[in-house]
Amino acid sequence: MTTPTLTPSIAELGHVGLRCHDVSRQLAFYTEVLGLTVTDHDERLGIWFLSARPDTEHHELLLAEGRDAPVGSRLIQQVSFRCARFEDVLGFHRRFREHDVRLDMIVSHGNAVGVYFYDPEGNRCEVYWRTGLVARQPFVEHIDIETDPEKLLDAIRASVERHGATGFTEESYRAWTREQAVAADVAADGATAKEVGR
């Protein structure tokens, strides 16, 4: 008698590994600015393990030597870090300003508030807090995070009441998305032309 095969399922995303040009610079950023904890490392192999929850998750981010793509190459769309409280997102925004971290966008996703930023090697990241609201995605509405927090959350709730069922994207975000696609096509055409010219 054979045991029925169960459909496998993923419990959760465990960790992401990033190859780096300068591991020590990246390590300083992720520990000093984001506050992650180094749980293990092997200098001979050039790898470092980091976690926001070292007691429950050995590592959520791995930094490794050996990046060979130039800075500015679009390899990663985003790496996101969830915060337990809205105040944490506000605190990170202040910390990013203090450390001259390059910001991308600060938005409401309806179901979350996110601050998008770049690490020292240009990887796009996000810190976010879940609002508890239900909103169809994509939902991208730029917000002024320096607004009084209660007024900001009231505005987000009102926006979700209006657009939560259908989703919402501002024209500036749609234009940005189109620009990314065009730039990727141009880069791909350039790479193909180089290959043909060999």
TrEMBL record:
InterPro entries reported for this sequence: Glyas_Bleomycin-R_OHBP_Dase, Glyas_Fos-R_dOase_dom, GlyoxalaseI/FosfomycinResist, VOC_core
Superkingdom of origin organism: Bacteria
SUPFAM superfamilies: Glyoxalase/Bleomycin resistance protein/Dihydroxybiphenyl dioxygenase
Domain VOC: 12-130
Pfam families reported in the protein's UniProt record: Glyoxalase
Signal peptide positions (record): none
Protein name (Swiss-Prot/TrEMBL): VOC family protein
Originating species: Streptomyces daliensis
Lineage: Bacteria, Bacillati, Actinomycetota, Actinomycetes, Kitasatosporales
